[in-house]
Amino acid sequence: MSSPAPSRTSPRAPLVGLVAALVGVALLVATIRQVGWVEIRQGVGAVGAWFLVVVALGGARFFARAKSWILCADQIGARGLTPGTAFDAVLAGDAVGNLTPLGLLASEPTKVLLVRRVLATSPALTSVALDNGFYTASVLVMIAAGAWALVRQVALDPSLRLVAEGVLAAVVAAVVVATWVALTRPAILSRLAQVTARIVGREARSPETLQEIEQRFYGVFAWPPAALWTAAAWQAAFHLGAVLEVWIVLRALSGGHTTLADAFVLESAGRLVTVLFKVIPFRMGVDEAGAAVVATALGIPPSHGVALALVRKLRILVWNACGLVVLARARR
Asked: What average pLDDT is seen over the chain?
C-alpha cells in the first residue's frame, strides 16, 4: 500500500501560527494581571492530587473518540482498526492539531497516516470523516444546551446575553443546513475539489475516491439503530468526561461548593472556545479569558475559572507529549 504524498505547507502558515500564539500569550498575560496571579497560583495548587484524576479522565475521553472511530470504520466494512492503534492515532492527531494553527486540517490527516498499515486511505478518510460528523453533532448539542442553560439560569449583562443568543441562533442554522444535507445529499466534496482545482489551475485529484467517501458518508442514514445509538453514546461519554473534569477541579478550588450544572455550562463555553479559536496553538489565553468571563457570570470567582483553564492545559500538555512520542515512534 503506497503512502499518501506529503502535503505542501503554505509559507504563510508558520507566520499565522506565530501571530496567533503572540496574541494568545498577550491575552493570557492581560487576564492573569486582571484576575490576580496569587489567587490563580493558589487555585492551581489547591487541585493537588486530583490532577491525576483529571489526566485519567483525559485519557478516557481519547479512548471514547478512538472507539467511536472504530465503530465508524466497522460500519463501512473497514476491519482491522484496533483500540490501541486508534488510541495512538487520536493522541498524535490531537498533539499535531494543538501545536499548529491548522487544527483539523492537520490532526485528521495525521490520524489517517498513522493507521495506513491497517486501513487503506479511502476507508480511513471516510471513517475519520464519519467520526468527526458525529463529534460535530455532539458539540452542537453541547454548545446549544450550555448557552440555553446560561440564558435561563443566570442574569446576564446585555453583551453576554447577546453572545449566548447568537450562539443559539448559529446552532439552529447549523441544524437547518444539516437537515438539508441529509435530505438532498449533495456532492459537496467532489464539487468543492473541482472548484478548488480550477482556481489553482490543476486537475482534480482522485474524484472517484471523493465520490466513494461521499456515498459512504451518506450511507450512515442506513446504519442499524444500535450502531447509531452506540456512536452517540461514545460521543456522550467524551463530553461527560469533560464535565466531570471541570466539576472535580472546581470542587477542589471551591471546597465542594460547585454544582454539575455550573460545570456543564463552563465546559460548553470551553467547547465553543475550542471551535472558534483552534487557530491559536493550545488556545493560549482565550481559554483562560473565556473561563474567567463565564465563571464570573455563574457567581464563581474569576480566578477559579483561570485556574481551571490552566489545569486543563496542563492535562493537554501531558497527553500531547504522549502523542508526540507516538509520532516519533511512527517516524522510526
From this structure: 82
Q: How far apart are CA 328 and CA 7, in angstroms?
A: 19
| Residue 2 belongs to a domain | no
Residue with cell 485528521: 108
Residue range 188-233, pLDDT digits in tens:
766 766 666 566 555 555 566 677 777 777 788 888 999 999 999 9
**Would you state the pLDDT for residue 1?**
42
Single out the residue of 239, 242, 241, 245 nearest to residue 50, CA to CA: 245
Residue 192 covered by a domain: no
Total structural domains within the chain: 1
Domain containing 135 equals 15-154+228-331
The long-range contacts involving 145-148, CB below 8 angstroms and separated by at least 24 positions, are: 145/264, 145/268, 146/264, 146/265, 146/267, 146/268, 146/269, 146/271, 146/272, 147/171, 147/268, 147/272
Give me the DSSP letters along 274-289. Answer: HHHTTTSGGGTTHHHH
Q: Which of 17, 6, 213, 3 is nearest to 103 (CA)?
A: 17
